[in-house]
Each structure stands twice: as structure tokens, then as C-alpha cells.
Design brief:
By secondary structure, the protein is of the alpha/beta class. The protein has four domains: 169 residues, 3-Layer(aba) Sandwich (Rossmann fold); 74 residues; 163 residues, 3-Layer(aba) Sandwich (Rossmann fold); 114 residues, Immunoglobulin-like, CATH 2.60.40. Helices cover 29% and strands 26% of the residues. It has 16 helices and 29 strands. The strands form six sheets. It has a seven-stranded parallel beta sheet, sandwiched between helices. α5 runs parallel beside α6.
């Protein structure tokens, strides 16, 4: 696949046999680097999966990387990027286009009288051509300029920051795409607007849907909408901060904005059902959540059990704190101390490696632990080992577990949210241990190493489990999800545009009270409407429902009992959600009053009315 972007170069792959759909698919991430984890791996793999099954695809990136062409070549050589799937990049795209002014009155570059001084420059690694130059103001570091260059030396992008005219302590940013003659073609006051502009160009040119893997990219694409393209976002990890309770914990900073605007997505995909359920339990029903697992292709037959090293244990993954590899080493040490023969191979690398190597030396088990670094033949290692040991603090869906099962290597894992319990049935196709319970994990690992019959039986069961995650099965899930999202889009947008607010509160002599709720739905007619009252911090799908008993001009009245608080378990505040339903699609909206309400009524402990 050529790396240049002439107007005749296809922006998406060209499958030999077309799938029944005529739409392409753009797999969007922020960057593809030399080394990366599971999220980028799946982004690239999905692009190849779509191409091989007849849907044109491409991988879309936005970062400025002078080594991208080398990275592209490396990933193709490693087999991680399909040879026929383009890896598109914003900077390569505009650097290869001459661009033309959109009108005779197009502006000139933002050059004014600032005495810019060069501070750095970067060349492309593949051919030494100038990539960008950085400039600084000699006395004010709030002024900065970066110019990006085509290979012919002309500038295609200027990125300027300077103090705001309204607030000198705040920087303003301006990005200008330039024609070959230096005139301004497009002008943006934020990088996000430039990114969205480019994605619109791609979607217009390719008639493609967009599937976003990067949380960072999803943040600036929340505001991106296209008249024909679907927009999906993938949750590769939990929606809360690491270790937090999924119902009450602080939201993951990277996910918070995506969740706040959850109704803007045509699809929100989760890797496991438990992950999706936790999301729905906290945020209520939605018409755009779907479970699509990562694909893992098992070999046609299970590797022979007798070929496995009876002492061999693996860990596969990046050496990060979240992977908790120190616990893996401790468990292997405990197994060795019980006189079970054990050898640990650690596949991967990362910034935790020096600390882990020191930990192995301190335990005196360097003869049992091998640091293999990155390897190209992970399947061969999985085919020859008895067990995979994972002690992660959290998981989305563990590719390492699925790949181990695909090759008959039995997983032992801490039972953390969300991945392990979705693919491991404890004692059947692997072992689960409570998080931090090293003794239970060590016992399970010893069983696999000492008992051939148990290990072989679980190896076979794991192999059968992995077959349900084949590429063909996962591709079918994707096409069904996209088809369903397109069929439901008109109604979903109507539900997303619905407005709900509390307009009245009325008390009856028996202590019951009415909630009067305005529901505005434009042109769509509701098939279902209810209130859901739930104790704060509990499952939002399991509260007490109430149906309206009257409707007048879009204001629905619900009667709630005087003893409602006592009728629900717990003692925390009760939250009220409105659930709208049209043609089987649901949307949950937290009930509130007018947003500009200045005085809030409440009742004192003596039942007297007060305002805050």
C-alpha cells in the first residue's frame, strides 16, 4: 500500500470481494507507535478483519510523528497491520496535498510582527526532509509557533499560540492549513476543530462509518457528527477510576466526558457483558450499548498436551503497575517453596522491568524466572506451557486469557472487573482467585502443574471457549451492531433530543404526592414512559417503577406513596429517572427542575417548608 496521498490513492482498502454493505469503516485512534498495547492491537486487527471479509477499511491517526513511515513498515512486517489496509495520518495527508484557496478573499498566514526565534526543528527519519520547525518569542514564552512542511519545503500547517486579547494570562491557539502558495485554506481556533474537519473530509471521500478506540480521540470527536456516518466508541476498560466501585466510584477522567455525552454516540461498545451491565446499572437503559468482544482465532486443533513443559508458567503483557506482575512472581515463589516444579517466562516489557528483576534477585529465584522481552512467537510459547498466570488490578477483556485458552494454556487469574470472569468458569476452563489472594492462586497453579488429568481437561475446555470468539463470529456481531444502529438512528436521535423536567409537586391529604413532569419529544410518539425511583449508589435498573396516571399537554403526573423512602431498602437519598421508550429503544434521563432555578425548596426535620 503506498504511503503517499495523491488524489488517486485509495483512502480505504480495496477488498477483492465486496461484502453486502457498500459502506467502508474507519478505525480511529490517536496514534500508532512502535510499541503498543491491547487497544491499538485490536484497532489494527479489526481493520484487517473488516477488509478480509469484504468491507473497505483504514486506520486513522492524528499525531505528528516524523517516524511514521518506518512504524508503518515495522507493523506490517510484524503482521500487526494488514498489508492492504492504509494507515492514514492527518499530517501525512495534508503534507501530500497542494491544497487550493477556497476563495479569492482567503486570508494570509498569521505572521504579524513577532520576532520569532527558532528553538527546534525535526526532520522525517525516512528521507531527512524537514518536518517541522518550532519558534519561540525571545521574551514571552506564551508565544509559540510550529510550522509543518511538505517535502518540497512549502508550509502546510501553522500552529500558533499567543496571549488572549481578552485575558493576557490565557493562551489562544490558531491553526491554519496553507495552500502551496502560502495562502490560508482553512482557519481553526482549536486543534479539535482541525481534527474534526479532517475526519469529515475522510468520511465524505470514503462513505465510511467511524469506530473510535482512543479515549483521547473520542474526547474531541464527541462534537463530530456526519449526515451519513455512524459513530461508535469502544470502551476497552472500566468507566471508573482503577479500583473504584462501579456504581458510586469516581469516573475515569478519560471516560467522564464520553459518558456525559453518551446519547451522542450511535454505538457504545463493551468487551464483556459484565462491563456493559455495570455501565447500565449506573447510568440507566440506553439504546446504543452493545457487547462486542475482541476476536481471537484458535488453531484448527488443540496443541498436544504431552508436548507441554509440565513446569512452565507464562505471563504475557506490558510491565506496568496495573498488571501487578510482582504478585505473579510472589505466587511462583510460593509454588516453588511447596516443592512443585515451576518455571516462569515473562513475555513483554515496560518501565516496571528493572524493579521486577530486582524483586526476582531478592527472592533468590533468578534460576526459575526468565525475562523474554517482546517475542514474535507467542502462540508457540502458549502451546508449550501449562498455565498462564495473571494478577492484574483491573481488566477490560484480557486478550492474554483468550489467546491462552485458544492454545490450551490454562489461565489462573485474579477475579477483577471485568474480563476474567466473563471467559473463565472457575474450575472448568481456568481458575479465578479473589484479588490479592495469592495463596488461592498458588494452590490453583500447583494443581495445574501437578495433576495432568485436571490440567488436560481444563485445557480442552479452554480451547472450546476460545472458539466462540473467532474472527468470523466477532465480525458478524459488528455488522449486526452497525446495521441495527443505522436502522434505529432516526428514533435514537429523537430520544436523544427529548427534554424532561419537573414542573410541579403536589401533596395529598393522605401523604401521597404527585410529580408533574414535562416530556418534550418533538415528533416521535412514545410507546412507554415511566419513573424509576432508586436508592442513590445502587443498580439504576432495579428501582421501583411508576406509571403516569394522567397526561395534559405533555405534562405527565405520577403519584408516589407517602412511605416511599421506607418501602425501598437502605437509607440514602432516592434518585428519580424518567425512562422513555419508542419501538423497543429506551433512554434514561435523570429528573431535574429548570436548570436556572435559584431557590430550591426542601423540608426541615419538623416538616416545615424552607428554601436554599
Amino acid at each position: 500500500m503506498p504511503t503517499s496521498y495523491s488524489r488517486d490513492t485509495p483512502l480505504v482498502s480495496q477488498p477483492e470481494t465486496a461484502h453486502r454493505t457498500d459502506r467502508a469503516a474507519l478505525m480511529v485512534t490517536w496514534a500508532v507507535e512502535e510499541d503498543f498495547g491491547g487497544m491499538t492491537t485490536m484497532c489494527l486487527k479489526r481493520a484487517g478483519l473488516f477488509h478480509e471479509r469484504g468491507i473497505p477499511s483504514a486506520v486513522v491517526t492524528f499525531n505528528a510523528n516524523p517516524d511514521l513511515e518506518s512504524i508503518r513498515s515495522t507493523q506490517r512486517t510484524r503482521g500487526r497491520l494488514h498489508p492492504d489496509v492504509p494507515l492514514l495520518n492527518l499530517h501525512e495527508y495534508y503534507a501530500a496535498r497542494t491544497l487550493h484557496p477556497i476563495s479569492p478573499t482567503t486570508g494570509t498566514p498569521d505572521t504579524d510582527e513577532i520576532p520569532w526565534q527558532e528553538s527546534a526543528r525535526q526532520s522525517r527519519n525516512v528521507d531527512g526532509s524537514l518536518f517541522f520547525i518550532d519558534y519561540q518569542h525571545p521574551s514571552n514564552d506564551m508565544h509559540s509557533l510550529r510550522e509543518y512542511f511538505r517535502r518540497d519545503g512549502s508550509t502546510y500547517l501553522r500552529d500558533t499560540s499567543r496571549p488572549s486579547a481578552k485575558d493576557p494570562d490565557r493562551a489562544e491557539r490558531r491553526l491554519q492549513l496553507l495552500a502551496i502558495d502560502g495562502s490560508v485554506v482553512h482557519d481553526f481556533n482549536s486543534a479539535a476543530k482541525l481534527y474534526r474537519h479532517w475526519l469529515t473530509e475522510l468520511a465524505d471521500s470514503t462513505d465510511a462509518d467511524v469506530i473510535i478506540d482512543s479515549k483521547y480521540a473520542a474526547g474531541f470527536l464527541i462534537a463530530w457528527n456526519h449526515p451519513t456516518a455512524l459513530k461508535f466508541v469502544n470502551f476497552h476498560s472500566t468507566h471508573v477510576a482503577a479500583g473504584a466501585d462501579t456504581l458510586t466510584g469516581k469516573l475515569s477522567p478519560a471516560h467522564a466526558k464520553i459518558i456525559e455525552h453518551r446519547d451522542t454516540w450511535d454505538g457504545i461498545t463493551f468487551l464483556t457483558e459484565s462491563q456493559r451491565s455495570a455501565f447500565v446499572q449506573r447510568f440507566g437503559q440506553g439504546s446504543n450499548t452493545v457487547v462486542i468482544s475482541n476476536p481471537v482465532d484458535a488453531p484448527s486443533s488443540l496443541p498436544p498436551f504431552e508436548a507441554r513443559n509440565p513446569a512452565k508458567v507464562l505471563h504475557v503483557g506490558r510491565f506496568t503497575k496495573g498488571k501487578n506482575i510482582g504478585a505473579v512472581i510472589d505466587i511462583v515463589n510460593a509454588v516453588a517453596a511447596s516443592n512443585t516444579s515451576v518455571l516462569l517466562d515473562l513475555i513483554g516489557d515496560g518501565n516496571e522491568r528493572p524493579r521486577l528483576e530486582e524483586h526476582v534477585r531478592e527472592l533468590g529465584i533468578a534460576h526459575l524466572v526468565t525475562f523474554l522481552g517482546h517475542v514474535q512467537d507467542v502462540p508457540n510459547h502458549l502451546s508449550s506451557a501449562r498455565a498462564l498466570l495473571l494478577c492484574s488490578r483491573f481488566e477490560g477483556q484480557s486478550l492474554a486469557i483468550l489467546e491462552a485458552q485458544a492454545y490450551g494454556c490454562v489461565p489462573v487469574a485474579f477475579d477483577v472487573d471485568f474480563g476474567p470472569r466473563d471467559v473463565i468458569t472457575n474450575g472448568r476452563n481456568g481458575f479465578l482467585a479473589p484479588f490479592g489472594d495469592q495463596a488461592t492462586a498458588a494452590t490453583a497453579l500447583s494443581t495445574l502443574l501437578d495433576d495432568d488429568a485436571v490440567c488436560e481437561r481444563m485445557s480442552v475446555q479452554g480451547f472450546e471457549t476460545a472458539r466462540t470468539f473467532s474472527s468470523d463470529a466477532i465480525f458478524t456481531h459488528w455488522t449486526k451492531a452497525l446495521d441495527m444502529a443505522r436502522a434505529n438512528k432516526k428514533i435514537r436521535l429523537e430520544l436523544a433530543a427529548a427534554t424532561v423536567r419537573l414542573t410541579g409537586l403536589k401533596f395529598h391529604s393522605d401523604g401521597d404526592f404527585d410529580l408533574e413532569v414535562y416530556v418534550g419529544t418533538r415528533t416521535v410518539e412514545l410507546d412507554g414512559l415511566s419513573l424509576q425511583v432508586t436508592e442513590r449508589g445502587t443498580d439504576a435498573t432495579r428501582g421501583r417503577p411508576f406509571a403516569p396516571y394522567q397526561n395534559a399537554d405533555g405534562i405527565y403526573t405520577f403519584r408516589l406513596p407517602a412511605g416511599l423512602r421506607a418501602q425501598l431498602p437502605g437509607s440514602d437519598a432516592l434518585d428519580v429517572n424518567v425512562i422513555l421508550e419508542v419501538a423497543g429503544l429506551k433512554r434514561t434521563i435523570r429528573l431535574g427542575a429548570a436548570p436556572k432555578m435559584q431557590s430550591v425548596p426542601y423540608f426541615t426535620t419538623y416538616g416545615n417548608l424552607s428554601f436554599k
